[in-house]
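Internal tracking record. Fields below are filled automatically when a chain is submitted to the structure queue. Please do not edit lines marked as system-generated. If the sequence contains nonstandard residues, flag them in the REMARKS field before resubmitting.
Queue: standard
Priority: normal
Entity type: single polypeptide chain
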Amino acid sequence: MNQQTPVYTANAECQDCFKCVRHCPVKAIKVEEGHASVMPELCVACGRCVEVCPAHAKKIRNDLSAVKELLRAPDPVYVSLAPSWVSEFKGLPAGKMIAALKSLGFKGVSETALGAQIVSADVAKKLRSLKSGVMISSACPVVVDMIRKYLPDFAGSISPVLSPALAHARLLKEKYGQNAKIVFIGPCIAKMNEADRHPELIDAALLYPRLRDWFRDANLDLWTIKETEQDHFDFAAAEEGALYPIEGGMNDTIKLCGGCDHIHFATVSGIPALRQTLDGLSPEEIREPVFIETLACIGGCVHGPGTQHGSPGLLERLRIIRSAEPQRDPAPRPVLKIDEDYQRAAVGTKDVSLQEIRQALWSVGKTRPEDELNCGGCGYDTCHNFALALIAGKAEPNMCVSWLRKLAQKKSNAILRCVPAAVVIVDSKLRLIECNRRFAELAGPEALEVFDEVPGMSGAVLDKLVPFPELFEQVLRSGIELKRDMIRMGKKLLSLDIFNIDPGQAIGAMFFDVTNTEFRREQIAERAKEVINKNLATVQDIACRLGEHMAETEILLRSIAEDYADQKEADTFESR
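SYSTEM-GENERATED OUTPUT FOLLOWS
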């Protein structure tokens, strides 16, 4: 994580989805140990990764503390306010915005659009003498970096003037002195790069969301703040320069300057469109005089990464048009030295052999041309480009979705083959997703034949294979897993476990054949019954014999007792 660059990754929050790779137009993302980080040397600060990151792991550098530090210093601090503010703060009077910014400590507020007007006048002057070839606007710092790094043949075609923000900063410095500090406020992340490269002109750049946070923390209500007669923009109010935030706005301002009727004007917005326009082309092939207004954000700066998109794009465009006051014959603009030389900064690419590419493709299971699906799941439009990213160390094999799926399938198949139980997985409609051979054997000869033809029997209907599908339906409906120690299936006795995989959507089951175990138990039980019955018979016989013996003994004793009693009575009678 490098918080010194305009865009960085909070690794702890990265969820390994690689969505940033898919959307980055220059693939300036490096995936390492599952985390996607921005590569500053490749990044053009367009902000797409920040906009699309679902985990908000892509962060924008916060220069608010640096701005507050400037305000605590003795030198005066002025705001260069981007013209898109009228769309961002819908309906807010300029006086209230200026009053709010001054209450934060700024000495004054001026419109960046004044710099745009100076740039347009200078570009128009250069275009008047252009007989052939192409000139590309330097207004958008994202596009400038994109051309210098990725379309370097056109670096010399960039209009050799500063961007409107830098031109405006120079204007403010000339008026208020070189000690004056300038803070740009607008929708563009790349302005931070401009500030870093030109610290002599712009001291810091803030996005609109940071400004909103600052207003909130300061308990400033923009709509109730009181404005005074002093709350107006420094210098004159902007005119045609206020059109710059929308597509075609710069072209319109240049045309107003006159003398450019022979120029073919074009507008290109979006980096993919810029690639499509210039890829495979060399400047020498363009014989007509052409000026291309280029914008990284589709629709213009009103759709920049530091803006809120709370209304349809057409309305945002119309707000900009209504706020601008272009003059058919604009007054001469201040003469200012705004020349700039844009050099090639081509991104170095390593020469890669065909064998290296093949090895990279083999590492993700792509051994044949038909294996190269070019699905884009990894974030790269072709498997070939993904292989190049693997070789460059920007990507990891597990980014290939199809390879991961095949790998998971192989692991699943291996596990299912080795499991001693019969295993089946079904979906919410009780159709097979997967099963192993043991399940097919359990389901019968016909199922086994199908399995041999279609391993896994995907799509087969469960109730054609087992006689108790209602148990599976019960688990799908309730989400409560089920266990049966013994259930009959044909001539077999089974132990059954039905478990959740994705509750309500997919469940699995394991069958263990306990027929032999139960048969042995029955044999033991029968043998035990025989032993018990014999014991009972023996006991009964003993009891019977004991009963007879006891009866005989009782008769004998009773006879003896009676004889004894009779003898005793006779002796008594004789004695009398």
